C-alpha cells in the first residue's frame, strides 16, 4: 500500500486487501524489531564484501569473511538474505585442457598420487598450462603452485606453447622461493614437461619430477582447478582485450587478488599468503 499510495486510493487498497486504515497507519509507525535491524546491518556488510571481492563470492566465502569481521550470523541466514537481495556469485563456465603429450617421450613416475595435502611449503609444486583468447590471438599461461598453500609461485605468459613457457614459470618460482629440502615438481605428461630442456633444468636444481598417469586427469587436479578459477572469475567476465592488456590483468588477478585476498576453501577459507604467514608464525612459536 505504501509503495502505491500515489497511484491508488488508500480506501480502495485497504478494502481490496482486507485491512483497516488504522491498521495501515499503525504499521507505518511500527519500529523495526531487533532481528530486522540486524538483517539490515548484515545485508549492508554482505554487499560490501561482495563488491570488495569483485562480486565473485557466494554465500560460503561471504559467511567466512563475515565471521572474520566479528559477525555471528549463520551461513543459512547469509544465504537467505543474499537470495532475497539478489546477490550471487558470477556464473561459471566450462574450460578446456591444453597440453599435448608426446607418446615417444619418457614420463616421470607419479610420486604425488592425488595426495594433495602437504604439511610444509616448497615440498610439492604442481604446474600446468592453459590458453586465453585475446584480440591478438591466443595467450598461453603457465603456472607453478605450491601444494601446501595453493599459492601461485611461478607465472609465465606468452604467444606460443614452446617449452620456454614452463621453463620461465619454474625459474620464476625458484627466484621467489628458498628451497631447504627435497622438492617434487608435478605436472601432466605434456611435451613441454617431458622435453630435454625442462628435464635438464630440474636436474640442475635438484628437483624430483613427478607426472600424472596416462589418461588420469585428476592426478593434476589442483593446477587444473586453479585454471578453472582463473577463467571463471576473470577471463569469462572481462571480455576480449589485446594481448598485453590481458597479461597485465591476469598478473593483477593472481598477485593482488588470488594470492593475497581470495579465501580458499581448502585452506579453511584463508588466502594463500595469510595461510603461509600463519604457518610461519606457528613455527616461530614452536621454536
The gist of it:
This protein is an alpha/beta fold and 287 residues long.
Q: How does this model look, in words?
A:
The chain is α/β, with parallel strands linked by helices. The chain contains 10 helices and 5 strands; from the N terminus they run αααααβββαβαβααα. The protein has helices spanning 10-17, 21-29, 34-52, 59-68, 75-85, 164-176, 196-204, 221-238, 243-258, 272-286; strands at residues 124-134, 137-146, 151-158, 183-187, 207-211. It has a 5-stranded mixed sheet with strand order 3-2-1-4-5, sandwiched between helices. Helix 7 links the parallel strand 4 (183-187) and strand 5 (207-211). Helix 3 (34-52) crosses helix 4 (59-68), helix 3 (34-52) crosses helix 5 (75-85) and helix 4 (59-68) crosses helix 5. The chain is elongated. The N and C termini lie far apart (68 Å). 28% of the residues are buried.
Q: Give the overall shape.
A: elongated
Mean pLDDT: 86
Helical stretch tally: 10
Order of helices and strands: HHHHHEEEHEHEHHH
Q: What's the helical proportion of residues?
A: 40-55%
Largest sheet: 5 strands, mixed
Using only C-alpha atoms, the radius of gyration works out to 26 Å
Beta-strand proportion: 5-15%
Low-confidence parts, pLDDT < 50 over ≥5 residues?
none
What structural class do you assign from the helix and strand content? alpha/beta
Number of strands: 5
* Distance N to C terminus: 68 Å
Order of strands, widest sheet:
3-2-1-4-5
Amino acid at each position: 500500500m505504501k509503495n502505491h499510495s500515489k497511484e491508488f486510493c488508500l480506501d480502495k487498497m485497504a478494502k481490496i486487501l482486507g485491512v483497516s486504515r488504522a491498521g495501515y497507519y499503525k504499521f507505518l509507525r511500527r519500529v523495526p524489531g531487533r532481528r530486522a535491524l540486524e538483517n539490515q546491518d548484515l545485508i549492508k556488510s554482505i554487499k560490501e564484501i561482495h563488491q570488495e571481492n569483485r562480486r565473485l563470492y557466494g554465500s560460503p566465502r561471504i559467511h567466512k569473511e563475515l565471521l572474520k569481521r566479528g559477525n555471528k550470523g549463520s551461513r543459512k541466514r547469509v544465504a537467505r538474505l543474499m537470495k532475497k537481495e539478489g546477490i550471487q556469485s558470477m556464473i561459471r563456465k566450462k574450460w578446456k585442457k591444453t597440453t599435448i603429450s608426446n607418446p615417444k617421450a619418457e614420463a616421470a613416475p607419479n610420486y604425488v598420487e592425488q595426495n594433495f595435502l602437504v604439511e610444509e611449503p616448497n615440498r610439492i609444486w604442481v604446474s600446468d598450462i592453459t590458453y586465453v583468447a585475446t584480440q591478438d590471438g591466443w595467450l598461453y599461461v603457465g603456472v607453478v603452485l605450491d601444494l601446501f598453500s595453493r599459492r601461485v609461485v611461478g607465472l609465465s605468459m606468452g604467444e606460443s606453447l614452446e617449452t620456454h613457457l614452463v621453463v620461465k614459470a619454474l625459474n620464476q618460482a625458484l627466484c621467489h622461493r628458498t628451497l631447504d629440502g627435497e622438492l617434487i615438481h608435478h605436472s601432466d605428461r605434456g611435451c613441454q614437461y617431458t622435453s630435454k630442456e625442462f628435464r635438464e633444468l630440474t636436474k640442475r636444481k635438484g628437483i624430483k619430477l613427478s607426472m600424472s598417469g596416462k589418461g588420469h586427469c585428476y592426478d593434476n587436479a589442483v593446477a587444473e582447478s586453479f585454471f578453472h578459477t582463473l577463467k571463471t572469475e576473470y577471463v569469462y567476465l572481462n571480455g576480449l582485450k589485446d594481448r598485453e592488456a590481458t597479461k597485465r590483468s591476469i598478473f593483477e588477478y593472481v598477485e593482488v587478488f588470488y594470492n593475497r585476498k581470495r579465501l580458499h576453501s581448502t585452506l579453511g577459507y584463508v588466502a594463500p599468503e595469510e595461510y603461509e604467514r600463519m604457518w610461519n608464525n606457528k613455527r616461530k612459536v614452536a621454536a
